[in-house]
Each structure stands twice: as structure tokens, then as C-alpha cells.
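Fold this sequence, please.
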Amino acid sequence: MNREKIKARNIWLVILVGAVIFAIFIAEIGYGRFFHLISNVNKSLIPFIILLNILNSITFTISWKFLIPMDVSFYKLFRFYIAGTFINNITPAFGAGGEPIKAILLGEETATSKAECFAGVVSQRLMSIFPFLLIEFMGVGLLLYMPELALGRWEVLALVFSIIFGVGTFVLLAYFYSRKDRLFSFVNFTLRFFAPLIRLVKRGFDHRTHADALESSINSFHGGLKNIRSNKKGLASAMFFSSLGWIFDIMTVYVVFISLGSGTQIHASILIITYIISTVSGWLPLFLPGGLGIVDSTMVALFILNGVPLEIALLATLLYRLASYWFNTILGAFYLLRSMKSV
């Protein structure tokens, strides 16, 4: 299957699923009621919602820049980050399909080892999980501080699972760091799985031709990780900006609620926990690109379970996903096309 067919299939699948989700949500609200609610949205807050979403990507890009030794402009790094986000959003790959693309684009731009670039990409994702878990624990702490608020059985199970999932990711990465042989097997499998995606930006890519150089790449990757580990100041800065990235994304959801002007009150702990569980749910399904449909339905269900009216939960989720998923997907497609022309 050539790169054009793969790209077209993935994009049309995303558009189709997105259209179905929008149609279902609007039908549940009722067309008349939907247009009434939309007309009453605080339009002055829409630029602020978009700004918060862009700040989310900017801060994660800054955290990435602190973890790489390459001399590359922030704007180009931002382009690579958003291009990778586009691939993440159109491919069913645990939200990580765009990571090899980021490494390849960075390597092509700086003429450095792809393995070392990939080490920076992986480290950025690792650094983003730390504050993600911290924010989750903060949400749990706020929930415990407010005894009148209570989670249902399924919410508790989902929350526990999200914590286990995050901690498990750290354990897995630590295991690969200590066992090069296992990392070699994993990377070999990953190259085969992502070969069609890599061909989006590198024509004629064949993972079999890279088998002999794989061990050398693993050594370079580990060397890159060690260099990052010794950069204490860079790690601290990356952690700080990753934390800001998650905060900006959560604030996006909060401002969306404010923009609806519904008078609906939602406690910070409920907002944080709903956001955390919904985000983790988007990393799981292998058959839906970017968690499309899974994140939306999970977020709506959790809002409703915690007292948010159905129509408000549906509309708030639609607006948030328009800003965080669809806006980034379109922007990422634009930057990926620009990057492909220069490769």
C-alpha cells in the first residue's frame, strides 16, 4: 500500500468518525436546542480557548527543546511537534504514532543521528507523564478534601487504572533502558509496524535495510538518554514546562465551561479527574485514531455522572475537542505537508 493510499485512508476515517460523533452529539442535544446554546456561547472567550490550546503545544515544544543538544530554531521544532501531533491524531497507535516522525524530521533538519533524536522525543514524553501523574494525584487529593463529592464505582476503577497505566509506562521504559536486548526486539517490531507512517515523510523507507544498523542505533539511543540524564537543569526545566502544558489543557476545558454561561458549577477535582481519565482512555484503543470517539464519550459520561446536565456535557466536550483535537490536527497537517516538501 503506497503512502498516498495510507494517508487518504487515515484522514477519511478520521473525518468520517468525527462527523458521526458530531451528528450523534447534536442529535442528543436536539438541533433547535443546540443552535440556541451555540448562539449563547461567550464569543469573546473563543480566542482565549484557542490560545490556551496553542500554549499547550508551545510549552511541550519548549520542554522538548531542553532535552535535545541540537541547534534548531524553536519555530521549526514547534512545526515538527505539531506535525507529529497530526500523525498521532490520525493513527491508532497508543497516541505515539507521531514520535518516530518527530525524530526523523529533527534528524533531517539537523543532520544528526535519528536514534539520538528519538531519545529526545522519548524523554519529552517521559517528562510529560511525571506531571500528568502529579496532577492526577492532586485531583484525588482535592476530591478527598471535599467529602460531599463522591465518585461512582466505574469512575474509581477508571481512576485506579489510569494511575497503574502511568506508573506501568515508567517501569516499562526503565526496563528497556536497562535491557538493550529487549529494546532491540521492541524497536525492530516498532519499525515494522510504523514503516507505512514513516514513508509519509521519507520516501522508499524499508525497515529491512535498517536491520544491520539497528544495534548501533540502540547504542546511540542509550547514549542520548545518558546525556539527557546528566542534564539536570534541562530535566528540571522540561518538567516545569510539561506541567504548564497539562495545566493549559485543563484550563481549556475550564474556560469552555465558562464560555457556555450555563451557570453549571463543576468542582476542580471532578474537572481534573474527568480530564485525566478521558486522556488516558484515548491512549488505549488500537483501532481508533487519536482516541477519537473514546475520549469524547468518556468525557461526556464522566461529566454526566458528576451532575453536569446532558446538553452541557455534550456541548462542552464538542467545543473542547474542536480546540484540542481538530484544530491541532488541521494545523499539524499543514506543517507536515510543509516539512515533507523540504525533506
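The two ends are 21 Å apart (CA to CA). The chain is about 80% helix and 0% strand.
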